[in-house]
Amino acid sequence: MYDWAELRHFRYLLTILEKQGFRVAAEELHTSQPNLSVQARQFQENASVRLFRKSRNGRIRPTETGLAFIGLARLLLETRDEVIEALIAIERGEIASVRFGCTPLVDQSLFRSFCAGHKEILPTCSIRPTHGDTAHLVEEVLAGTVDTAIVTLPLKHPDLHIEELRRDRLVVCLRRDHPLASKVALQTRDLQDNLAILYHPQRHPDAHERLLELLADAGVKVEEYSHASHPSDMQTLIKEGHGFALIREGTLLDEELTTRPIAGVSWTVDTAVIYHKQRHPKTVPILVRKFKKHLSKELNGTGSDMITVAVQTSMTVQKRPPQSAAKVPEQLALLMESK
Length: 339
Known about the structure:
By secondary structure, the chain is α/β, with parallel strands linked by helices. It has 9 helices and 11 strands.
């Protein structure tokens, strides 16, 4: 559809906009100013866009479209480089197998889809799955014994690339025969003295600490509680009458159990893929881009809005309901929204 657009057009125009002039851009690109002028004019005419204006002193000033072009062109050229690096690594036989990790609180169907996505890129590559807690998998990714992992947030580390994938609402899990199960939604006050089963603090200390903060902010004080190291353990404790638990919405439930949302707040479990910034199979960045695009299409198919997130803070107050994510500057986990 846009066969007239070539990668060189994006590189040329990006340099013109970044250097704010044709002469400096021509020197940077080792080409002539007339050639740059022709390429810039042809691209803008074919696309029916205006990317810049010339000021009186001859400096280039990007338009609103031009400012958007800068970020998009960088993304396109970055993807080009990632694709070429992946092809070179495959040709050299550097990716015979990959080791992918997953934590217990992650939707296992998400992990399976992630693994299947790599098979689509490189069908002959074997995948070695491994399971563990977030802290354990982070250590293995940093050590190089695991190539990439899907974990629950919050998480910060300077050597890790962290891409948030999805947000799932946190709901209350309780027995079907409990009197509060007759309610469509529970109030936060219903959690007091009933919420008595939590994921083991040592499995994800940062998430545990933040969850207790969110509960306290909502007026729920949890003093004594049972520990569970896996979602299935949580369900067993609930069935045995030890109290309620908070679980990821969509978790496969025992037939004796049910879930209810919590009115007045939106708490989410946020899922991200992590890999080492320097040491990783060259197919991984392409896989992550492809997988996030797939998740985006799934969201659009269900009519949900998509928001973008990236990597820095852990849990915070948010003005939008939990949903899947794509890419901007803040990493979130177990978000709370006061309605």
